[in-house]
Design brief:
mainly alpha; Arc Repressor Mutant, subunit A; 3-stranded antiparallel sheet; 3 strands; 9% strand
Length: 140
């Protein structure tokens, strides 16, 4: 079987191109794809518990910690302890973090709109169904 005849070839190929596109856009604003993704997963109003971020994004704790530290040093996020339970640390967006989150959001939404305009809702629903099947197969 040739590589281009496998599912993983096309998934990896597409993700590498998407990742490159997101990194190029992010770099224009001093971001990386990872930091933009983190900003998108932080609740802009209430913040998000640090322990929930990794599982939400599929990031390893070490990578997440390193990226969060860098983001905090740049003033994009703030860590706040819960008043009622000191074991809980919430990651909150600073004003600059919110601005950068909006840029990241516009980039992701714009890409999704362009693709949806090309393929239509039915094909998108079919794609999601196939991806869910692939996800289920990776758990076996």
């Amino acid at each position: 079987m040739k590589p281009e005849e496998t599912l993983d070839f096309h998934i990896r190929w597409a993700w590498l191109k998407i990742s490159k596109m997101y990194n190029q856009e992010a770099s224009e604003h001093g971001l990386t794809q990872s930091s933009g993704f983190i900003l998108l997963n932080i609740d802009p109003k209430c913040g998000t518990p640090a322990t929930q971020l990794g599982p939400m994004m599929g990031m390893e704790p070490t990578s997440l910690s390193r990226t969060l530290k860098s983001m905090e040093e740049k003033g994009w996020i703030e860590k706040k302890q819960n008043d009622n339970d000191k074991r809980i640390t919430r990651i909150c967006l600073s004003a600059e973090g919110k601005r950068l989150r909006n840029i990241s959001r516009k980039t992701v939404v714009g890409f999704n709109e362009r693709v949806l305009n090309e393929i239509g809702q039915k094909r998108f629903n079919d794609f999601k169904e196939v991806i869910q099947i692939i996800d289920q197969q990776t758990m076996n």
